[in-house]
Amino acid sequence: MKSAGKRVGLALGGGGIRGLSHIGVLKVLEQEGIDIDLIVGTSAGALIGGAYASGQSPREIQARLEAYLRSSEFDATALKSIGLTVSPEQQGRLRKAQSLIMNRYYMVRSFFRPSLLPAGDFHSLVNFFLPEMDIRRTRIPFRAVTTDLITGRQIVLSEGPLRPAVLASCAVPGAIEPVPSGEWLLADGGITSLVPVHAAREAGADVVIAVTVDRDLPSSGNMETAQDIFYRAGEITSSKLGAVELEDADVIIRPEVGDLHWMDFRRSGDLIRGGEEATRRALGEIYAALPLKRRISRLAGPFLTMGKRFQRSFLRAAAVLADTPKDQSPPSPLRDHTAANPDPAAKGGGTAALPPRTETSAKP
Known about the structure:
Mean pLDDT: 78
Low-confidence stretches: 333-364
Radius of gyration: 33 Å
Number of strands: 8
Shape: globular
Largest sheet: 8 strands, mixed
Strand content: 5-15%
């Protein structure tokens, strides 16, 4: 039951494929009856959060994901071929060589285009997950966090078509083409806010449950090339900015994603389970952070359930009595007639009661 008082907001962070952990988080929140009044998502958090806000259940979102990963549409995308090259699992030599060639092709292609991935690849993913609707019509109020590359400002989208808003929030610089919108050129919300806690506060959330799915910052790594050093610097900046924003959250859920690459699709099931486990570990903190009215409702829940069951039983009994004819007397209680009415013969008067007559068929 939602209260008319304090609002509970869910801030879902970005992290590419690691954002599938959000599905597990939503599963547990639903199972525990924890209502969410507002969802704010960055990048992958916008994709999963937008799908949930639109009315899909966590199980439906997971089923869509599994269907997409098995589809010929996904097989034909650069998302899959590049994802295979970043997966540490051993592959066959032929497959490995094919993936490496495709990866090099897309890298060279990116020098002449605004993105590494073809624009249609991510469009198809977003369209597969999300319905065509306006953000203002979602079942749960929703916000998608993006960054305007022209002004450097954070842009939080609260109206307009849902699909383009999520696409803009997911537009990782260099990997996915920015989305033009009026005077803005919108890209990944993670540039300015990896976990949108502040945006959730500004949208009206009194209690913010933040979910961070950024991978662990390794203490050491391969930094032999300029590209390695460039990526390392970006990871450090992102980690530090994210830590500062998370300080404003009431509850932080941290699914264990390790150092999984943001385009490695091979562990989707593990990520969802990781989201479930992390949320269950955080349930104590979540309940403590909930508004008082919701905590009381949760404690009273078992008693309310018992009351409803008693009410249903009473109504069923009343209905049975109402259907009983008025001239039909209720059956008399069973009694021991021998004890209540002793044998008259024993007192020397009258005739002994005869046993009940038994009808038998006549023999020829």
